[in-house]
Amino acid sequence: MTVQVAIFGGGPAGIAAAAWLSQRGVRVLCIDSGVRRGARREVWTAAVGDRLQALALEGPLSEHAYACRVTLSSWGTDTQDERYGLFNAHGDEWIVTRPEISSVLRRALTDSPAEFREGARLRHIRCVGRRWRIDWDEPVGRRSCIADAWIDATGVQSAGARRVGARRLHFDRQLGLSGRVMRTKEGERMLGALMLETGSTGWWYMIGGDAPMLDAVWMTDMDLLVEGPQRTFHTAFSSSNRLGHWAQISAPNVSSIAASLSCLDYTAGDGWCAVGDAALQRDPLCGAGAYHAVNDGISGAETVLQALRGDASAWARHQTRYRERLEDHLRERWIVYGSECRWPMERYWFRRSRVRKSGLVDPERRWNATSMLAHDWERSGLPLESMRAIRKVLSSAPMSSLEMARCIRETVGQALSDAWIVASIGRLEVSGCISSA
Ligand SMILES: Cc1cc2nc3c(=O)[nH]c(=O)nc-3n(C[C@H](O)[C@H](O)[C@H](O)COP(=O)(O)OP(=O)(O)OC[C@H]3O[C@@H](n4cnc5c(N)ncnc54)[C@H](O)[C@@H]3O)c2cc1C
Q1: What's the whole-number mean pLDDT along residues 331-343?
Q2: How many whole angstroms separate alpha carbon 430 and alpha carbon 206?
Q3: pLDDT at 313
């Protein structure tokens, strides 16, 4: 079999790319391993509607979804803010389940000449002259094709890009513990609502559906699961301020979902590009992963079309676009996580603060840093002996800024607030005393 473009992955990004290309007369093959993400509810931003229209899929969301009418958010505060879809520039957000929405998206391929193969797992990619030989496995055996170009849309697997040497870079080790909980009487008000709430070691989101069972997900870091997933979920649930009003735990099966911010070190090469989560998995906090997947699928398809028409620089532009998207996302992420200041010394929040990766490495810098702190702390009225003790520890051993914060806390007891300590370390970083690791 010979095609112009082979697409690996039939999630939102892969389907969008396949539909967009085949609507422009490109011969496309799309293979999908059929690994399901489960029927967990998701919130899709209404902005995705424009992108679906670009694929001639008008109105499908309203057939298979219901409006998310309000977001109840306790982020950075003990009170709960309400944000209504009415004030969202794109209109209401939508509550969807992935299997339903996948079948809607795949409709874009049914009337097109694109070939879609489900239950097909990519095996090998080999460059043959200026084209690619692609092998994949289906239940009936191995299949292969020759393609002019390919698109990797296999989500975090990045199964295609990895086979040609790209590496995945992780910015954190976040995961989501997902469980189904039973709605209380009060929780009936949750219908069509998304709830966000922070805790000292992560944050919750819970989506209110029409069924008595609700989807609750606790986002935290892998190394903070000291008690294992099930107990961590229970402990976080019972220490939440508000979740208990809306729902109760009824021995949920807790599943873990990889949710780290990660990207490929390069997202395109001659004859291929990666799109959607395969190229850049954003923090789920952005609440628009599926929108970005559809949007990126279309822009990846444009890249391939330009290249097929002879514009060899299209691949490099794709790479640059992703670098910009990553930078935008990192900026947005600092701002949102930075707006939660109640637990600045807890690992989860500290790692997401600006001073996260900095450290004191060379002796001269360590000395400058401690002099600067001493000057700073003179004004805070810290006893001289505490200051001396801190300077001694800080100047004797290289340490990360988290270790530094801990050491200061141990030495000064409660004489300085957490926020104050983190701010001091932040000032050291800005002044260049602490180098970024
Ligand atoms: C905990 C969590 C909650 C989220 N909640 C939301 C939300 O509420 N709203 C939102 O908009 N986004 C949400 N997201 C993000 C969103 O799910 C993703 O951004 C989006 O699914 C990415 O789409 P994709 O097509 O790039 O990848 P995926 O949806 O992961 O699709 C990849 C496809 O590739 C296939 N595949 C994998 N390996 C192979 C292989 N070797 N060969 C062939 N096929 C293969 C898989 O079967 C799959 O169908 C959430 C993410 C997480 C982790």
Answers
A1: 82
A2: 37
A3: 96
Q: Is 66 part of any domain?
A: no
Q: What is the pLDDT of residues 64-104, one digit of tens each?
A: 777 787 788 888 888 887 765 444 444 567 888 888 888 88
Q: Which atom of ligand 1 is nearest to the CA of 207?
A: 8
Pocket test for ligand 1, best of 30, 35, 291 (most atoms within 8 A of CB): 35
Strands (E) in 232-334, as ranges, are 247-248, 255-258, 262-264, 268-269, 272-274, 280-281
- Which of 103, 256, 277, 282 is the pocket-test mutation for ligand 1 (most atoms within 8 Å of CB)? 277
> CA 119, 103, 154: angle at the middle one, nearest 5?
45
> Which atom of ligand 1 lies at the shortest distance from residue 259's CA?
53
Please check whether residue 63 lies inside any domain of the structure: no
For the Cβ of 284 lying below 6 angstroms from any atom of ligand 1, the answer is: yes
Same domain, 180 and 141: no
* Contact status, residue 136 vs residue 221, Cβ threshold 8 Å: no
155 in ligand 1 pocket by Cβ < 6 Å? yes
Q: Read off the pLDDT of residues 25-79 as tens digits, 9 standing for 90 and up.
A: 999 999 999 876 666 788 888 788 888 888 887 666 667 777 787 788 888 888 8
* Residue 292 domain-assigned (yes or no): yes
Domain that includes residue 200, residue range: 174-258
Q: Which residues contact 17 (CB under 8 A, 6 or more apart)?
A: 7, 151, 153, 275, 297, 298, 300, 301, 304
Does ligand 1 have an atom closer than 6 angstroms to the CB of 217?
yes
How far out from the chain centre does Cα 303 lie?
Answer: 24
CATH number at residue 251: 3.30.9.100
At residue 245 the predicted structure's pLDDT band, cuts being 50, 70 and 90, is: confident
Of the candidates 303, 271, 262, the residue with the CA atom closest to the CA atom of residue 163: 271
- Evaluate whether residue 81 is within a structural domain: no
Six token digits for residue 90: 């794109």
Do 425 and 330 share a structural domain? Answer: no
Same domain for 367 and 392, yes or no, is: yes
C-beta of residue 98 within 8 angstroms of C-beta of residue 39: yes
Q: Are 169 and 263 in contact (CB under 8 A)?
A: yes
| Residue 39 in tokens | 């029927």
Q: What is the pTM of this model?
A: 0.82
Query: For residues 430 and 222, what is the distance between their CA atoms, to the nearest angstrom?
Result: 29
Read off the DSSP letter of residue 286: G
**Cβ(242)–Cβ(195) below 8 Å:** yes
Q: Based on the structure, what is the number of domains in the chain?
A: 3
Q: Treating both helix axes as pointing N-terminal to C-terminal, what angle do 314-338 and 289-308 enclose, rounded to 10 degrees? A: 170
